[in-house]
Input
Amino acid sequence: MENALTNTAGQSDYFWWQTGTIYQIYPRSFCDSDGDGVGDLQGIITKLDYLQWLGIDCIWLSPIFPSPMADFGYDISDYKGIHPLFGTMADFDELVGEVHSRNMKILLDLVPNHTSDQHPWFIESRSSRTNPKRDWYLWQDAREDGGLPNNWLSVFGGPAWEWDEATGQYYYHAFAVQQPDLNWRNPEVQQAMLDVMRFWLEKGIDGFRVDVMWHMIKDLQLRDNPALTNLLPGTENRPYYQFAQVYSTDQPEVHDIVRMMRALTDKFDQRVLIGEIYLPVEKLVTYYGHDSKGAHLPFNFQLLQLPWEPMSIAMAIDTYEGSLPASGWPNWVLGNHDKPRIASRVGRDQARVAAVMLLTLRGTPTLYYGDEIGMRDVPIPKHEIVDPQGVNMPELNISRDPARTPMQWNSQINAGFSRRKPWLRVADDAGRINVEAGQKDPYSMLSFYHRLLALRKSEPALHIGTYSPLYSDNQIIAYFRQYENDRFLIVLNLSHRPAYLTPRQDFHEGKIALSTEYERIRIKTGPDITLNGDEALVIRVTQTTPPTPGL
Ligand code: GLC
Ligand code: MG
Output
């Protein structure tokens, strides 16, 4: 790893997970091959050619393991199996083979923080106070006054402690009641989960995205979380976010666990460990670990969370770049199955600008399925909500269902996703916003993504080049990427109005390699750069300084 990052001799010194693009598949919603309304592994296999055409290097699957589906797979009842809804182990092996035969990679979701309450470990654990697995979970007596052990709340609403009548203790669940948290201080739990990792790594998968990595260890004394006085905007009516999660998450000892996971991962060739972590940058970067022996990529979710304001984003980019440890490789994420889709947050025109940002910033990009065709969040009527976060807090409009709707493949019934009624309704615009229509239309979002991914792949400056900020104001962000003598200037207009930029350094003339305005591709530009509203430009720099007069 160190070699890869200090040696600039050639592109091949980088790992696939540094240069490639990751694509998140939410398996329930990607493609349903057997007509039960839920996507499956055989469905994914039929779409690998599409992903390869698109220019994807690696797929990450949200959980496909046996699960009662209280949290749609993030409540696992068997870590070494495949849920029959998705297929069989033979289907999985076939999928891995098909992915690898296309020179692509595949990551699985590891959910180590909690199991399903139907997992045999928990069934044993709750069976009696003296069961050998009692200590595998977080059991606590009621306080002397009969109250809850502390003030910790569940992300999905209500207290995080659930009373177990049979054994007269509470158990802790950071998420749904059906998702009891494991006790990661117990060495047996550590070994059991490392064994799960080994199982899948030996099967040939290329790594893991680790669910809620920063949650795994909690304060040993179970101290109360302090109430916040300054609330983050938009969280005012979510009790969970009214407390700083200083004792329930991000404990120093979590890094020992991450290190263990990394050490195991490193026993295999070219595998990657990605951590799902929602923390401020200065804490996020600690998950690279001592000597960079933690997560290869602690997911950087800033683009999902920041307001769409050029100056805040420019500052966040530079803060992040400046905070990375010496051998820490950056990464960027624009969407996932927990957050509103980018096209719904900033609109479809700006979503193209966002795509350019995602795919030209330095570091590994992760795309969310459907964003490449401009899918929007789909309004789900109240009685159709299935996401526990939405069901538990219906008045807050925080259900995650809208961002999890079936992939729109074509204009046929159910958008070509399934022969029968899908588990979540399909978008109203699926007849025109779909893969088949997008591939035929050079102006579509999909054709744009296709060109952008191809450019990124063909230009070392864009996938391994250096990053240097140039300028930002209340409309635009501009930065350079450079590899050897190849230099690109990227200019993003985050506003709907025309914008102008006259770089005072390192740029005199260039050729537009890519623009969100199809008509401007391959046009030359001089030192006075103009942008349409909602336009993003990737300019190949051809002259950095004005020609010397008289020569
Ligand atoms: C992660 C997942 C989310 C899930 C939660 C509990 O945040 O991305 O979907 O509900 O963990 O597993
Ligand atoms: Mg199916």
